[in-house]
Write a structure and sequence with these properties.
Blueprint: E1 2-7, E2 10-13, E3 18-26, E4 34-39, E5 46-51, E6 57-59, E7 67-72, E8 77-82, E9 91-98, E10 102-104, E11 108-113
Parallel strand pairs: 2-11
Antiparallel strand pairs: 1-3, 3-8, 4-5, 4-9, 5-6, 7-8, 9-10, 9-11
Amino acid sequence: QVQLVESGGGLVQAGGSLRLSCAASGNIFSFNAMGWYRQAPGKQRQLVADITSGGSTNYAVSVKGRFTISRDNAKNTVYLQLNSLKPEDTAVYYCYAEAAYVYWGPGTQVTVSS
């Protein structure tokens, strides 16, 4: 059984920063890709950023230059640093981790006020 638990969401003013963390636990040695999706009300879930076990990263155009993804393989943890936040970044952020299956966290709310 593998579980992902996100933390670090909250309410922040536009221009502010947050750091999301997602820790994986359970019967697994390592993951391939790990990353973050987000879903705003009334919209589809969209990829925000992902990172391979080797450290290669990929970002959505809308967050490139503002968000930074990183991971600690020894801890099976992925992080997302959110800087220069905008109201349109408001969403539930979900982390995922890919091994033989894709595992998802329950989500953490990020709200950016104008």
